[in-house]
């Protein structure tokens, strides 16, 4: 009796790295099928980069343009991380663009009019963003009003408050310390070379981190007898990722080095990526977005998780508002317009699902980069803003359509 219980003759192929009775080709096909959305977006990003690199005569990947690409899209990438988590939880947030504008307005009043030191003003505005997100999360989680309605009301409320705070005027400039955080680069250290030494060092550290993380993930899959990615595909993915990191490092180090805001993005990516993949809180977010009823029966505090998700989104919106205002050195009543649409598009292009429960923080970054490269590349080749909107709309439609098709194919 006990031998029958412990024997697992029908263990999934590839579990624990075994995959008895199946060829490497079949395992590779299964792994690609399971990760088709993620790999598809990576392939699309690479294709778009190559296309515009050729179309612009090599201008796209000039070191200065790569730095500008990071700086121009930093606030959208910050918003995309928070929006991805909101969508995974099965909700939406339409207020983030208006909240970024309000945070920039309040920051300008505190720093420019009231002469409050900028670190204290940053702390105050981050807390304000968290409070705004918590207020919306309270109505959504505990009162039961749909997130679409609550955040639509928040979008109108925060936009109106921005006009009131600024009295319809643009306000600036911001202190130099805050400007350096949004537009500055890492300092020069070490001997005189043709590259930015600190950026090279950080790039090598990132390569080591990626390799160690991949080894740890495979070891964990083997220990818990989880479905393991075939070694060939894992090595190919790792080699491609390392190559991208090294190329980006060399390009940034050839100009002024890594922008400070890139370090902020890296901290957010690693931190939220770890929480969503390994922490209990991240699993609860996936649970309530994937199957709310089952999550409740499993003991997940769905209201508390939803409240925390919107509080986090508010804080990230505040951070994006500070970065945006400092980058342009002024707070404007028209700031943040359509930021929520850009963040939502980045999340869906990066692998989020309309039904919730699906998506990764890295996917949000990939989706944001797809939009960023499209914007930058089309500007370089002189595509008009009207056609830019058309192309971005088609890209979003294609990404969501691919998600629907992929679900039907896997279900079939």
What is the topology?
Elements (H helix, E strand, L loop, with lengths): L1 H5 L17 H11 L1 H20 L7 H26 L7 H18 L4 H26 L3 H20 L9 H8 L13 H27 L7 H23 L6 H19 L1 H11 L1 H6 L4 H27 L10 H11 L11 H21 L3 H27 L1
Helix pairs in contact: 3-16, 4-10, 4-11, 4-14, 4-15, 4-16, 5-6, 5-7, 5-14, 6-7, 6-14, 8-14, 9-10, 11-12, 12-14, 15-16, 15-17
What does this structure look like?
- With 412 residues, the protein is mainly alpha-helical.
- Helices cover 74% and strands 0% of the residues.
- The protein contains 17 helices and no strands.
- Helix 5 runs antiparallel to helix 6.
- The chain is globular, with a radius of gyration of 23 Å.
- The chain starts with a helix and ends with a helix.
- Mean pLDDT is 85; it is low at 1-21.
Distance between the termini: 36 Å
* Total DSSP helices: 17
- Mean pLDDT across all residues, rounded? 85
Low-confidence stretches: 1-21
Overall structural class, as computed from helix and strand content, comes to mainly alpha
Shape: globular
Assembly level: single chain
* Pattern of helices and strands: HHHHHHHHHHHHHHHHH
Secondary structure: helix percent? over 70%
Strand proportion, as a percent range, falls in under 5%
Q: Using only CA atoms, what is the Rg?
A: 23 Å
The major beta sheet can be summarized as:
none
What is the total tally of β strands?
0
């Amino acid at each position: 009796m006990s031998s029958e219980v412990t024997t697992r003759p029908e263990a999934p192929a590839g579990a624990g790295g075994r995959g008895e009775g199946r060829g490497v080709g079949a395992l590779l096909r299964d792994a690609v099928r399971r990760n088709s959305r993620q790999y598809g977006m990576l392939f699309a990003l690479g294709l778009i980069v190559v296309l515009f690199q050729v179309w612009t005569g090599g201008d796209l990947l000039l070191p200065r343009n790569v730095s500008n690409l990071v700086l121009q899209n930093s606030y959208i990438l910050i918003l995309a991380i928070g929006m991805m988590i909101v969508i995974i939880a099965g909700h939406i947030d339409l207020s983030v663009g208006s909240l970024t504008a309000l945070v920039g307005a309040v920051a300008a009043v505190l720093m420019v009019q009231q002469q409050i030191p900028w670190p204290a003003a940053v702390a105050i505005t981050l807390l304000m963003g968290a409070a705004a997100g918590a207020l919306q999360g309270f109505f959504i989680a505990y009162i039961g009003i749909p997130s679409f309605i609550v955040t639509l009301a928040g979008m109108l409320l925060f936009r109106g408050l921005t006009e009131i705070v600024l009295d319809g005027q643009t306000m600036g400039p911001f202190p130099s310390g805050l400007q350096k955080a949004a537009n500055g680069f890492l300092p020069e250290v070490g001997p005189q070379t043709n590259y930015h030494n600190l950026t090279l060092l950080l790039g090598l550290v990132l390569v080591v981190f990626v390799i160690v993380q991949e080894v740890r993930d495979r070891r964990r899959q083997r220990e818990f007898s989880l479905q393991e990615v075939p070694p060939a595909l894992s090595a190919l993915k790792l080699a491609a990722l390392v190559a991208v990191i090294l190329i980006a490092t060399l390009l940034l180090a050839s100009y002024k080095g890594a922008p400070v805001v890139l370090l902020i993005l890296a901290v957010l990516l690693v931190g939220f990526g770890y929480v969503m993949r390994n922490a209990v809180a991240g699993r609860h977010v996936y649970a309530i977005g994937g199957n709310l009823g089952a999550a409740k029966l499993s003991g997940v505090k769905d209201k508390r998780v939803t409240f925390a998700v919107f509080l986090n989104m508010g804080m990230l919106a505040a951070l994006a508002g500070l970065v945006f205002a400092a980058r342009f050195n002024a707070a404007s009543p028209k700031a943040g317009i359509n930021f929520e649409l850009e963040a939502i598009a980045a999340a869906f292009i990066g692998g989020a699902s309309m039904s919730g429960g699906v998506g990764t923080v890295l996917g949000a970054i990939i989706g944001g980069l797809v939009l960023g490269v499209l914007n930058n590349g089309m500007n370089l080749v002189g595509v008009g803003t009207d056609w830019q909107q058309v192309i971005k709309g088609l890209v979003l439609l294609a990404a969501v359509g691919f998600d629907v098709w992929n679900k039907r194919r896997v279900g079939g």
